[in-house]
Amino acid sequence: LNYSSLVGFVPQEDTMLRDLTIRENLSFYARIRLPASYSNARCEIIVTETIATLGLSHIEHSRIGDETQRGISGGQRKRVNVGMEMVSSPSLLFLDEPTSGLDSTTSYELLEALHVLASKGTNILVVLHQPSYQLFQLFDDVLLLGKGGSTVYLGESTKCLDYFTGLGFVCGDRVNPADFFMDVIAGKHKRTNDPNFVPS
Known about the structure:
Helix 4 links the parallel strand 2 (92-96) and strand 3 (123-127). By secondary structure, this protein is an alpha/beta fold. The strands form two sheets. It has a three-stranded parallel beta sheet with strand order 1-2-3, with helices on one face. The two termini are 38 Å apart. 38% of the residues lie in helices and 12% in strands. The protein contains seven helices and five strands, in the order E-H-H-H-E-H-E-H-E-E-H-H. The chain has helices spanning 22-33, 40-53, 74-86, 104-119, 133-136, 160-166, 177-185, and strands spanning 7-10, 92-96, 123-127, 141-145, 151-156. It is elongated and about 65 Å long.
């Protein structure tokens, strides 16, 4: 079976034509990813909606740029990278560490855009390392993996802290809960109800 029309994948590295503008890049990908039966006008409507969802309308005619030619920012480039998959209207979108190299504000803007996309019916799976708790809470469900890929937690992001505290782990008042979860998995926290606990 060919799932290419249903699944999109956004790699960690930004791969796009740097001499083209944001709209030109997305239009190009829309034409090669959408069905041939789609008219140019229909493709452009999809591109326009994608640009608006990603918050790039004000710079849609700006060139991407590279090391020798000034262009858009790293965060904007990352959103274009996501948009190149979004234009194909995938049912499932995978993203490999989309916030790498981005500051907290830019990361939040990117994940907010993904949240809008999810609200429109696309299933989104994201691999993240060391997210802020603000980003962590944008996800509906999270999967935390331990050593060897074993499942430590799978469920709603809003219930994750209660799950770990219910097991006897205490998160400090000024500690990022997302970092706390990773530290618990790494064995850096003791269980109040089992001081001899060692993570498997």
